[in-house]
Design a protein that fits this description.
Elements (H helix, E strand, L loop, with lengths): L3 E5 L20 E2 L2 E2 H11 L4 E6 L4 H7 L3 H9 L3 H8 L7 E6 L6 H6 L2 H4 L5 E4 L3 E4 L7 H12 L2 E7 L9 E5 L9 E9 L10 E9 L3 H7 L10 H12 L1 E5 L3 E4 L3 H13 L5 H14 L1
Parallel strand pairs: 1-4, 1-6, 4-5, 8-12
Antiparallel strand pairs: 2-3, 6-11, 7-13, 8-11, 9-10, 10-12
Helix pairs in contact: 8-9
Length: about 300
């Protein structure tokens, strides 16, 4: 069972400017909690118990969010605000460890993952979750991340989560080339490769890699040997391609859908989705939407 996950949070968040100028993009809120908390909750629900934040000196707010704030908790307890106190204490379950490591230079996603090597080691498989992306598995019995983990356990091959995108959007993503027929939702298939941002005509499919990976520990050796690629950065996709040639890599076709919170419209969509079903605010929020739609 995979128990470790890497969350790369050291980036500057330029897609979110100016909102991310003074606060980490991962701390921008969706309703009543920061984006990063939803991603951690996704990992925990899939059985992850060690969360490794690959962070930067400017991202202290993320570490503080998951740390205990004794003074605040004591104040809430003294004022009898027990519901809010319980909510704060449940941000990180007692069985979950939050571990921070620094990425000293912005040398790419592959380098960020490699920074977690001393914590994970070369023998343990692990998950990578990009914190810009929320995976929405509402009303489904099993999350897609849990499905990916089960698929890795069954096949021993790395898993890339993919989602079908519109034909006009394939040039924005890494698009997988399935070996044989495309997988159905909730299934995986072997890959013949990944094409970065192809045009609509040459794209091998419409299945885009969307920010969730299950990787074996040997990926660290491959990353350490991967030369800098585009932009002088160590690309995770380059190491995954080497792994595919050596051992094979699968695409897991998700059953839910994603919200790209690194883009303003994706963030607004996520806010609508999560606010409309919020246990406290959902009913009133839906009434607000109805009112504003009527006013037009």
């Amino acid at each position: 069972m995979i128990r470790k996950a890497v969350l790369p949070v050291a980036g500057f968040g330029t897609r979110c400017l100016p909102a991310s100028k003074a606060i980490p993009k991962e701390m921008i809120t969706i309703v009543d909690r920061p984006v990063i908390q939803y991603v951690v909750e996704e990992a925990v629900a899939a059985g992850i118990r060690d969360i490794i934040l690959v962070t930067h000196g400017s991202k202290g707010a993320i570490e503080n969010h998951f740390d205990k704030n004794f003074e605040l908790e004591a104040s809430l307890e003294a004022k009898g605000k027990y519901d809010l106190l319980a909510e704060l204490r449940s941000i990180v379950p007692a069985s979950v460890n939050i571990i921070s490591v620094r990425q000293p230079e912005p040398l790419g996603l592959g380098h960020a993952v490699l920074c977690a090597r001393p914590v994970i080691g070369d023998a343990s498989p692990f998950a990578v979750l990009l914190p810009d992306v929320l995976v929405d598995n509402r009303d489904q019995p099993r999350t897609d991340l849990a499905g990916m983990i089960a698929s890795f356990d069954a096949t021993g091959r790395a898993q890339l989560m993919v989602e079908q995108v519109a034909a006009e959007d394939v040039s924005k993503y890494g698009i997988v080339a399935p070996r044989g027929e495309e997988p159905q939702a909730g299934e995986c298939c072997a890959l013949d490769g990944v094409v970065e941002k192809p045009d609509t005509v040459s794209a091998p499919s419409r299945l885009a890699v969307i920010g969730r990976y299950i990787l074996p520990g040997e990926i660290f050796t491959l990353l350490a040997e991967t030369p800098p690629g585009a932009g002088g950065e160590i690309q995770l996709t380059d190491a995954i391609e080497t792994l595919r040639q050596q051992k094979g890599v699968d695409a897991w076709r998700m059953t839910g859908h994603t919200h790209d919170c690194g883009h303003q419209l994706g963030y607004l969509e996520a806010t609508l989705a999560y606010a409309s079903r919020h246990p406290r605010f959902g009913q009133e929020f839906r009434a607000l939407l109805t009112r504003y739609a009527a006013e037009g």
